[in-house]
Design a protein that fits this description.
With 296 residues, the chain is of the alpha+beta class. It is built from seven helices and 19 strands.
Amino acid sequence: MALIELRRAENVAGDFFVDTTCIDCDLCRQIAPSVFTDTGDQSAVYHQPSSHEEEFAALKALVTCPTASIGTVEKHSTKQAVAAFPELIDASVYFCGFASESSFGASSYLITRAGGNVLIDSPRFARPLASRIEQLGGARWIFLTHRDDVADHEKWADHFNAERILHRDDITRSTEGVELVLKGRDAIALADDLVAIPTPGHTRGHAVLLYKNEYLFSGDHVWWSDAKKSLVASRRVNWYSWTEQIRSMERLLDYRFSWVLPGHGRRACANPERMREYLSQCVARMGGEVKMSVGV
């Protein structure tokens, strides 16, 4: 629970506030952009909710916050905000909320499908969220994009008797028991509508999941930038090989998709042709950074 005595000075006066435990995961700014803003390396409230819609969005951000850094002076019921998750994004794709600090506040997603639902990366384990996912059909698979965002994967797997999927090159002591291990760098069809695509770079065993040739669950591989108005990747958070990440990005140009749904960063939606343009721009910028670093 956020502590009033740790309330950041950057918050405007009023009910909602962010305290100094914020880790700058950006989720509150995505969920309630009219309430929360970026102030340096943390978030703060720049506008107190002035409508039911804004208050509800702020409470969803409070529920999602991985470090419980959002608080209120007045007492509010979070029952409806808790029940809002998983929250429908488009068609059969949902945002799970309930981010985990151990994944640095990474977003996780749920696909509902006739062949068995898929949980992408792991939210914080919470009984209310588990109950809502049960109502939507549970989870057959848990696709872990990479080693950083596994959070409470064991609890979710046990709860749903789900099989976890992770690339061999990203298996660590905490994920040694995963049931389905991806290998190599070739794309793997998990089902008619699901393709796992190894994308080494951010980590050695990073992989993305393509659903229905429309939704790309990109982990920490690529995301949308409002500033650049394009897809981006970051060398600052590249833990394995920037060169490999560029090659992985180039391979994604062979696929069609309309959505990019990342673990960290903003989502993107555009027609496949425009999305390919954004991806090409990203590849060009990444290659330019390599040339600059070697003085070409």
